[in-house]
């Protein structure tokens, strides 16, 4: 069973790993001070070290928080009326189930179409892939009809196309299909 404690510790470890990768990568660019000021890796190295320290602190805090301490704090709060900071932060049982039954299915119903849409961007481009994602999401999650979903998706992605391609003049991924349709 996946508990909140597991998720908190995994988050801390992941943050520390990200910080370690950042600090290690910045070593190639120099982490010291040069005649012209800080080297290119000066700030990323320090930010990476801060992320490592914070990630390890999070992992240790939630990994070492005892079950009895949380239970005894909950009993104290339940038995007495506490005012002040303790009342704002009631004890949390970190060993309860993290996901309620059925919640993984709801998460997957959004994550899987998002991942498929992102995987289609090299072939269909951002606009077509986004339109397909919107149509699918509106029809399955929002229970919207096909015609309404197509109209909303095409108007939304058309507005994004005008906004990015003409107004901001930032060309986004067109994929293989859009140039074949004459849209560059």
UniProtKB/TrEMBL annotation:
Superkingdom classification of source: Bacteria
Membrane-crossing residue ranges in chain numbering: 7-27, 39-60, 107-129, 149-168
Keywords assigned by UniProt, alphabetized: Membrane, Transmembrane, Transmembrane helix
Occurrences of domain DUF1468 (ranges): 10-172
Official protein name in the record: DUF1468 domain-containing protein
Lineage: Bacteria, Pseudomonadati, Pseudomonadota, Alphaproteobacteria, Hyphomicrobiales
């Amino acid at each position: 069973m996946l508990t909140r404690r597991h998720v908190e510790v995994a988050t801390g470890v992941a943050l520390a790993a990200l910080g370690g990768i950042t600090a290690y990568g910045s070593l190639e660019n120099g982490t010291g001070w040069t005649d012209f000021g800080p080297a290119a890796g000066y700030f990323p190295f320090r930010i990476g070290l801060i992320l490592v320290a914070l990630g390890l602190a999070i992992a240790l805090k939630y990994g070492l928080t005892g079950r009895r301490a949380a239970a005894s704090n909950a009993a104290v709060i339940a038995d007495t009326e506490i005012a002040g900071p303790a009342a704002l932060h009631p004890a949390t049982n970190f060993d309860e189930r993290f996901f309620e039954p059925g919640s993984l299915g709801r998460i997957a119903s959004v994550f899987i179409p998002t991942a498929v849409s992102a995987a289609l961007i090299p072939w269909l481009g951002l606009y077509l892939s986004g339109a397909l994602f919107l149509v699918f999401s509106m029809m399955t999650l929002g229970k919207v009809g096909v015609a309404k979903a197509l109209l909303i998706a095409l108007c939304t992605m058309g507005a994004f196309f005008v906004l990015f391609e003409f107004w901001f003049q930032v060309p986004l991924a067109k994929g293989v299909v859009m140039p074949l349709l004459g849209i560059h």
